[in-house]
Amino acid sequence: MEHHNRNNRTIENPIIGDRVTFLSTSMETDGDHELVEVELNPGGKNDLHYHISYCEEFEALEGSVYVDCSGGTYIVQPGEKKTIQIGSVHRFYNPGPTPIKFRVKISPARSFEPMLRIAYGLIQDGKTNSKGIPRNIFELAIIFQLGESYLPGLPRYIQKGLFGCLYLIATGLGIKKRLYQTYCMDTISPS
User: Fold this and answer.
1) DSSP letters spanning 144-168
2) d(CA 58, CA 159)
3) With bands split at pLDDT 50, 70 and 90, how would you rate the model's confidence at 184?
4) Is 70 exceeded by the pLDDT of residue 4?
5) Which domains does the chain have, with CATH numbers?
6) To 5 degrees, how large is the angle CA 83–CA 116–CA 165?
7) pLDDT digit string, tens, across residues 9-32
8) Which residue ranges does UniProt annotate as crossing the membrane (predicted)?
9) Main-chain dihedrals φ then ψ at residue 109, nearest 5 degrees
């Protein structure tokens, strides 16, 4: 089992080319929101997805963050914000030649932090494929359930049913507990 400094506020994902710093955690805001600062390398991006229980508000700080949302492309300039509503299919990316920096406010916080810590930790430990998808289907199910995120193109009830069942099995087998102990157990708490 890998051991990580779970108290770090900054985590990295070399596959999508970003560094995420937790500025405000769920524990610090009593679950109201989480605020992260993202540094995204040129060409960095995530895949199209949607959330069923929280909104995301993107605010550009340095450079422009491109956000595809519900069929349109928004170029968020420094000082501007773009809110992604619950259920809106979206992704962010940096098509430019230099790194960019932006903030994302997740409201309400839900399980965003543990989901991201587990996903990025598995990538860092080489336990995913080249696209960042966990090789272990139970670990993938835990990430899907925690993130309350879904992929367009496949009916949500199929994704929710499949990953919901696998999540219950993974929890019963102790996989969720192991992932929390490895990647999340000591996440930042209020001082």
Assistant:
1) HHHHTEE-TTS-HHHHHHHHHHHHH
2) 26
3) confident
4) no
5) 10-107 (2.60.120.10), 112-184 (no CATH)
6) 100
7) 999 999 988 999 999 999 899 999
8) none
9) -65, -40
DSSP β-bridge partners for residue 82? 58
Model confidence at 89, pLDDT cuts 50, 70, 90, reads very high
> How far is it, in rounded angstroms, from Cα 190 to Cα 172?
30
Q: Is 54 exposed, middle or buried (0-12, 13-18, 19+ CB in 10 A)?
A: buried
Could you tell me what percent of the chain has a pLDDT over 90?
81
Distance CA 119, CA 122 (A): 5
Amino acid, single-letter form, for residue 6: R
Half-sphere exposure of 182 (CA within 13 A, CB side): 17
Q: Which residue stretches of the chain are H helix?
A: 112-124, 137-147, 156-172, 175-179
- Contact between 55 and 107 (Cβ < 8 Å): yes
Residue type, 143: I
